[in-house]
Amino acid sequence: MDTTSLIIFIIVGAFVGWLAGVIMRGFGFGIIGNIIVGVVGAFIGTWLFANVLKIQNIVSPLVDLVIYAMVGAIILLIVLGIFRKIVK
User: Fold this and answer.
1) For the stretch 66-77, what's the b/e string if a residue is b when 16 or more beta carbons lie within 10 angstroms of its beta carbon?
2) Sign of dihedral through CA atoms 61, 66, 67, 73?
3) pLDDT > 70: what percent of the chain?
4) PANTHER family from the entry (predicted)?
5) At what angle do helices 30-47 and 61-87 cross, to 10 degrees?
6) What CA–CA distance (Å, rounded) separates 65 from 41?
7) Taking the CB of residue 10, how many other CB atoms lie within 10 A of it?
């Protein structure tokens, strides 16, 4: 992965993490937390779409990354919310 791709990946991760936090209400993690949620969400979403659902190339590579990351980040936040309730 070259430097430009890494920067785009981090920017998309931050945006998607923030947007997932807005959608899921109450999950604000700050800029670093949003990047982590977005990047982990991208890995989860890419794995889910490519391996489980066998869906690839929806629109374009960048739009696909945003869609995969958004779905993955929302799934991640749902799992974190369930985990928080169990731990309390």
Assistant:
1) bbbbbbbbbbbb
2) positive
3) 95
4) UPF0410 PROTEIN YMGE
5) 110
6) 10
7) 13
Average pLDDT along the chain:
84
- Tens digit of each residue's pLDDT (9 = 90 or more) over 9-44: 788 888 888 888 888 876 667 778 888 888 898 889
Distance (Å, whole) CA 36 – CA 23: 17
SS3 labels along 55-71: CCCCCCHHHHHHHHHHH
**Amino acid (one-letter) located at 63:** V
Where are the domains positioned within the chain?
3-87
pLDDT at 60: 83
pTM: predicted TM-score of the whole model, two decimal places:
0.81
Q: Which of 64, 53, 49 is nearest to 8 (CA)?
A: 64
